[in-house]
Amino acid sequence: MKFKTIISCAVCVLTVASCDKMDYREYTNYGKDYMELSYDNVSGLITNIYTKLDYDFGQSYSGGMLASACDEAEYAYNSNAVCDFYNGSWSPANAKESTWTNSYAAIQMCNHYLDGFQGLTFPELELNQDYDAKMNSYNNYAHEARFLRAYFYFNLVRQYGGVPLVTHVPTTQEVNKLTRASSEDIFKFIESECDDITNKIIADYTALGSLALSTPETARANRLTVLALKARAALYAASPLFNTTDSKELWKKAALANKAVLDSAVVYKKYLVKYSELWGETNWTKDEMIFMRRMYPDATNTLEGYNFPIGVEGGKSGNCPTQTLVDAYEMKATGKLWNETGSGYDPTKPYVGRDPRFELTIAKNGDTKWPTYNTLALQTYYGGANGEPITGATPTGYYLKKYCDASVNLAAGKTNTKRHTWITYRLGEFYLNYAEAVFKYLGSADATSPEFPLSAREAVNMIRNRADVKMPLLSAGLSSEDFWKKYENERMIELAFEGHRFWDIRRWKEGDKLKSIVQMKITKNDDGTFTYTRKIVNRSWDDKMYLFPIPQSERMKNPNLTQNPGWE
């Protein structure tokens, strides 16, 4: 880990000074002096840390999303770097290491702030009318920095397992001698940090009155955000990948933590909204959102450029939903999967009568106005305007809708941009998290207790009963096996393309599901009807892939970093 370099680069953005030749001690002294000059400098550092927050709009793999590295999607071009996750090219030398580098850079900035920039008073501002508001915001920065540090440690532990735990700015002598803490220790650190700052961090940016500096937003950490981090981390800590003894106490902690989010959501007026409102230009304003990652710049069309259909001007196909995902959408009338007896599925009309979330997530053959400037119905069949054998056409038969804005225009001379905001935490996730944890703890979908009056089945039904979803509710009396299948399926479709499936498969240790995906091959018949044929495509999976390899470049700098099993 190049902490020396990281320190230099962390605030380089703020100073606009050349940092190439600045050594550690020179930078430390200068940085402190600079930061103490003004409130704006301190505020700028905290804001810069927020820019390190992760999102998955295809920025890491030239358009590829992690959805295309699991069974949600397939990237239209097999040369994309995201394909390395399953094509045999993944290795410590090709470790997909952006999370390691980015997270430790952010952690170093947090430590830099916490070590050096607390207790300032900014006397030059004392006579300003907004002095109290700025000091209120400044006093909150330390809690935000601790939240952010814990957040980045969560990203590291879910990806690598145990990692070096650094809670101060290390010396140059320390930095390359660090050893890996256990995953258990990392999860305990996240829990303790969240517990300590929950009642210290600003509870609600909408209730600051005269102490408010800006309009309320969902892009800055508050009390509910801290609870959300603790809850998600607790769920992962309880999951089979990390909970190797199936400790019921860990499942109980996860259930309690996620229940705390649900209970607090009522206090802070967070509610489930229409599924159709979860993305789009104004999704950040919706009541379901707990914490979101702003895009910089706010207005962009990059996501659409990657994912609009080939054959539509400006479109490149990108992350194409699989038939595996499509098959997870139940029939609306019966609540059954397509291949279950009595489902009502018609193989000649495979998309009629499906869960409404299907139409909101996936673009299919025959769809009109996708995107809005496309004057033709989508033709994803072989020989169609948006289908094979055109280079870059969808290999699966589908294109991505979710997160893409249909009103974006990529046509020459007509291009426009729209605001995009990545969902980090939303209420729907925590109903599902709670359902999983309480089911694993109490042992039954219908079980309740004084601590957990909401059953796992009832929590899932809250999701299925959304205003624009209204799927048949899960019935009482499901066996544990049947409920788990229903739960996994519900999670797959509700959270599709939100960055969960890739990690869910791993924490459940169900990697066999990634050994293949299903495509849909569509042919147009002479009479205008279509023939739909499923095709299974095999992929590479090895159990070592539950965790990422520690980047070889990092191990060369620090021999104390042990490698994850199977990657040696």
Number of strands: 8
Looking at how many chains there are and whether they match, the oligomeric state comes to: single chain
Q: H/E series, N to C?
A: HHHHEHHHHHHEHEHHEEEHHHHEEH
Per the principal axes of the C-alpha atoms, what is the gross shape?
Answer: globular
Q: List low-pLDDT spans.
A: 1-30
How much strand content do the residues show?
Answer: 5-15%
Q: How does the helix and strand content classify structurally?
A: mainly alpha
CATH structural architecture of the domain at 3-35 and 97-216: Alpha Horseshoe
Q: What proportion of the residues is helical, as a percent range?
A: 25-40%
Q: How large is the radius of gyration?
A: 24 Å
| CATH topology heading of the domain at 3-35 and 97-216 | Serine Threonine Protein Phosphatase 5, Tetratricopeptide repeat
Largest sheet: 2 strands, antiparallel
CATH class identity of the domain at 3-35 and 97-216: Mainly Alpha
Describe the structure.
The chain is mainly alpha-helical and 568 residues long. It has a domain at 3-35 and 97-216: Alpha Horseshoe (Serine Threonine Protein Phosphatase 5, Tetratricopeptide repeat). 37% of the residues lie in helices and 9% in strands. It is built from 18 helices and 8 strands. It has helices at 3-10, 12-15, 24-35, 39-50, 98-116, 131-160, 172-175, 183-197, 223-238, 248-267, 302-307, 323-326, 356-361, 427-442, 456-464, 480-494, 501-507, 552-557; strands spanning 73-75, 289-300, 319-321, 362-363, 399-400, 418-426, 516-524, 530-538. The strands form 4 sheets. Strands 1-3 form a two-stranded antiparallel sheet. The chain has a two-stranded antiparallel ribbon with strand order 2-6. Strand 7 (516-524) and strand 8 (530-538) form a beta hairpin. Helix 6 runs parallel beside helix 9 (223-238). The protein is globular. The model is unreliable at 1-30 (pLDDT under 50).
